[in-house]
Design brief:
- This protein has 181 residues and is of the alpha+beta class.
- The protein has a single domain, classed as Distorted Sandwich (Glucose Permease (Domain IIA)).
- The protein contains three helices and ten strands, in the order H-H-E-E-E-E-E-E-E-E-E-E-H.
- Strands 1, 2, 3, 4, 5, 6, 7, 8, 9 and 10 form a ten-stranded antiparallel β-sheet that branches.
- The radius of gyration is 19 Å and the shape is globular.
């Protein structure tokens, strides 16, 4: 029994302490103690209409739209939707992306940027400018920001995370059948 306790203490001393910034990693890895998504607690990274909603894929490699597209002019400042740590800031296949790990375990991703103004590993505050919008998905008009979100290895509808102040008609559960009364 004492050997197991001593081994536990030795292992605990070798594992670095983790703070709120590491909660996103712990949640994605299924580690206990990470908070769940803060639904409705994130701010809009840009102000504009949603021109394409979230469409979950049928499987991990299936087609779908793993985020939302928000129409804004090119060069619009993109602001962090919540506090966190920059997990990625760079190019993928020639396009610019920024991903932020948030304390509640959510990773937000901001895609199709024309400029990046943060670096990997940097702490970021809600509302801080992380880059500038680009054209958006190739061949899709008007210019837009693609906002994605993941939690625990699964894609989330970013609309569930965003504050709804002054926005009408975001939730539609099912069609209303007035004739079935």
């Amino acid at each position: 029994m004492r050997i197991a306790a001593a081994l536990g203490l030795i292992l605990a001393s070798l594992i670095p302490a983790t703070g709120a910034a590491d909660a996103g990693l712990r949640a994605r890895e299924g580690v206990a103690g990470a908070a769940g998504p803060e639904y409705g607690g994130y701010v809009w990274p840009v102000q504009g209409p949603v021109i394409r909603p979230f469409q979950p894929p049928a499987g991990p490699y299936g087609s779908g739209h793993r985020g939302i597209d928000i129409a804004v002019p090119m060069g619009t400042p993109v602001r962090a939707a919540g506090d966190g740590v920059v997990a990625f800031a760079g190019a993928v296949a020639g396009e610019r992306y920024v991903s932020i790990d948030h304390p509640d375990g959510v990773r937000t991703t901001y895609s199709w940027l024309s400029a990046i103004e943060v670096t990997r590993g940097a702490p970021i505050a809600v509302g801080q400018v992380l880059g500038r919008t680009g054209q958006g998905h190739p061949g899709v008009e008007p210019p837009h920001l693609h906002l994605g979100a993941r939690y625990g290895g699964s894609y989330l509808d970013p609309m569930l995370l965003l504050q709804r102040d002054g926005v009408v008609g975001l939730i539609r559960l099912a069609p209303l059948d007035l004739a079935a009364g």
